[in-house]
Amino acid sequence: MWPDEAAPGEERFALFRALRPVILNGWEMPVLLRAIVRGCSESAILRSWEGVRDEVVGSERPRGEELVGVLKRTLDDVRREWIAAARDDWLAGNVPYCRLEELRRLVGEPERAMVVTTKEGEFARQILEHWNVRLAGIQGKEA
């Protein structure tokens, strides 16, 4: 996204992992990393992620909604390329937060549960099929 700058060093990713829970939408992940690289403090991000996010989005080129659109398209395109090149590798990188048996029990008896996600539904569908989790439906961002 910012090709004129060096990629962030590995030391930045420990903080990124710690702050990951503030993310509400996938496109925010590169913005979080950008805020870290710019020196935004962990406490500021935890206290007011939305404000930090909006400040970064408003000060970069492209700016504002144009940047958000570029990030969304880029993330989806990269994900599709990864799936096409190495689907099993991509699927292995997606792990549930709880045991699969528990997930299946919670959402699959009977098939009434739905997933609403900010991802494209096609990506969520592939992950859940791989995990053998049956749902009544999936509503992705395309819905």
Structure description:
This protein is mostly helical. The chain has two domains: 1-86; 94-143, no CATH class. It has helices at 10-19, 28-37, 42-47, 49-59, 65-92, 100-108, 121-130, and strands at residues 114-116, 137-139. Helix 1 (10-19) crosses helix 2 (28-37). It starts with 9 loop residues before the first helix and ends with a strand.
Notable features of this structure?
2 domains; 143 residues; single chain; mainly alpha; globular
Short note summarizing the structure:
With 143 residues, this protein is mainly alpha-helical. It is built from 7 helices and 2 strands, in the order H-H-H-H-H-H-E-H-E.
Q: Topology, please?
A:
Elements: H1 10-19, H2 28-37, H3 42-47, H4 49-59, H5 65-92, H6 100-108, E1 114-116, H7 121-130, E2 137-139
